Amino acid sequence: MDDTLTPGTIACPAVPVPAKRSFLGRLGPGLITGASDDDPSGIASYSQAGAAFGYGLLWTMVLSLPLMAAIQEISARIGRVTGHGIAGNIRRHYSRWVLYPVVILLVIANTINIGADIGAMGDATKLLIGGPALLYSVVFALLTVLLQVFGSYSKCCTVFKLLAIALFSYVLTTFLAHVPWGTALKSAVLPTFQRSSDYWATFVAVLGTTISPYLFFWQASLETEEIKSHSDEHSLKKAPEQASTQFDRIRLDTYVGMGFSNVVAFFIIIAAAATLNAHGIKDVETSAQAAEALRPIAGKSAFILFALGIIGTGLLAVPVLAGSAAYAVGEAFKWPTGMDRQPLAARGFYGVLTVSTLLGLAINFPSVQRITHLTPIRALFWSAVINGVAAVPIMVIVMLMAGNRKVMGKFERTSKPLQMMGWIATAVMAAAAALMFVTMRSPS
After folding, report:
1. In whole angstroms, what is the distance from residue 186 CA to residue 172 CA?
2. pLDDT tens digits, residue range 274-283?
3. Phi, psi of 108 (to 5 degrees)
4. Which of 151, 112, 193 is nearest to 368 (CA)?
5. pLDDT tens, 408-437?
6. With contact defined as beta carbons under 8 Å apart, do 258 and 38 qualify?
7. Does a structural domain hold residue 114?
8. Is 132 helix (H, G, I), strand (E, B) or coil?
9. How far apart are CA 141 and CA 143, in angstroms?
């Protein structure tokens, strides 16, 4: 082939074709995001659902899977197409009066959630080996900060993927219980409803735990990290010829991650129903309480697996919560962001990450609890409330951005099924948020 240029043509640099990845190599942002969704706070919600209503809320896992997968895939596509996260795109294309309230609500909710998760890890460790729960909480908080501040993006991803294995402990726990599988599976596909406000409050808690704003921000931002960490990959606005490959990868990654998340939640509800509910224990406030209640009913092995799962998922979820807050604030204020940056080169990014983790840790100190009246149980409650307030407007913005040519360029036309499912997810969350305020009762 003649490589000479004809007069008047302009030489354009060739965009390298991304190297083919293995199946496991194609799993990353979606898998990590899905696994982090089953954090200790989520485990508490799922355990309460199983303890209070047996198998009666299993259907929520079937309902939420396509909804969460759709909104997460759309969030990931925004990050991959534009090369910017959710907050970065809001800053570029919408008013600051939209941006700042969204980011502030996200940071507050994430910080409170971090506190509840760190406390749960400390309590779970105390149950396993004895000793001071608060000291363990301090150690876990420092470990998660050090990992993100001094670890590269690739190292963090490797650690996060390994920690996702901890979720299998809940699957194993279920098989140590005596589960009437026919009843459980029937409840999963044939919903039964109750009129009690407690039933609908638990439904809202489960749905809100499954579809949370920090997950949208995190997966979109990780897609931008993927672009930075692979020299042969670019934002799709700059390299549209990579779209087919990347969209296929995003879809696989997202559906595997969200499927993994929901399957684990499904098994947690079953385990709680088959053990706690079956023995008359119908009130679980924290994941550590659920683990402790399992010991006399399902045996020591089930208790150990459940407690280890709390620690493993907490070590994954806390960095995700802190990291999504840091990405959102950094993008909102045009700060350098990214886990591959040196600490001094991204002081604002790492500062938000560190401060949100330490403030979350502080919630677990008795002196702070006396001043703020924010116990771990109250922390879970207020985190759910703030997420409920923030989720719907954020989802509306995400859906509008996905169809905005100024944001997405030639990729603003999302497939109709994906677009429809994204708007259905938004409508369901709006209904859930309204129901939350109807059924809301602040814990004492």
Report:
1. 21
2. 999 888 888 8
3. -65, -50
4. 112
5. 999 887 788 999 999 999 999 999 888 888
6. no
7. yes
8. coil
9. 5
